[in-house]
Write a structure and sequence with these properties.
The protein is α+β, with helices and mostly antiparallel strands. It is 45% helix and 13% strand. The chain has a 4-stranded antiparallel beta sheet, with helices on both faces.
């Protein structure tokens, strides 16, 4: 489909069927996700794909109380594919110690160099591409925040990686509209003329 249609159709889906997602579809989505911008071409974003039912249920169990309070069922448990998006600050810091980067940044302190932690920027870019690629594949998707230590331990993620959240992939259930974003139903997207500032704020 056309890019503008992909963007318009992107939304967080909170109800999935039990139909699996073909592995080759997941691979295509992740192949797109890895093509996001990368500071210094550090490529410090990695993915853990979880399809094992027992592991998915453990991931889902931590949010049951919160989901119940917000009026959602446990759509995390329903999603047949979980993708933990992980970033490594050390990969970025190591990359910027290489000679081509040091020629530019050698006089900066670590705080000055990393006042914006670009590993999170790149992780967000990868997430956005993942969500858009899912739409292009006619796959429903959502994203949830996680408690990093729990996910790191559950998925054997190395200590120098930070799991920033989990993307959920699956097929949209017929009742998905009922479980849409509660806040999005009450809040309209801000218009362009409110969020764009020309030449200065």
């Amino acid at each position: 489909m056309e890019f503008d249609e992909v963007v318009r159709r992107r939304r967080m889906v909170r109800s999935f069927t039990d139909e699996p997602v073909a592995p080759e579809v997941v691979d295509r989505i992740l192949d797109t996700a890895r093509r996001g911008p990368s500071a210094g071409y550090s490529q410090g974003v990695e993915f853990v794909v979880v399809t094992d039912d027992a592991t998915r249920q453990k991931l889902a169990s931590t949010g049951e109380e919160t989901l119940a309070k917000s009026g959602h069922k446990n759509f995390v448990a329903q999603a047949p594919v979980h993708v933990a998006i992980c970033v490594s600050p050390e990969i970025y810091k190591s990359r910027y110690r290489e000679s081509d980067k040091m020629a530019v940044v050698s006089e900066l302190t670590e705080d000055e160099l990393w006042h914006t932690p670009f590993w999170f920027t790149d992780g967000g870019a990868a997430l956005t591409l993942l969500l858009l690629a899912a739409v292009d594949e006619n796959i429903a998707a959502a994203f949830i925040g996680v408690e990093p230590a729990f996910v790191r331990n559950l998925l054997d993620i190395p200590d120098d990686y930070i799991p920033i959240g989990v993307a959920l992939l699956g097929h949209e259930a017929p009742d998905a509209e009922r479980y849409g974003d509660v806040s999005a139903k009450k809040r309209k997207r801000r218009p362009l003329n409110e969020i764009v500032h020309r030449d200065r704020w």
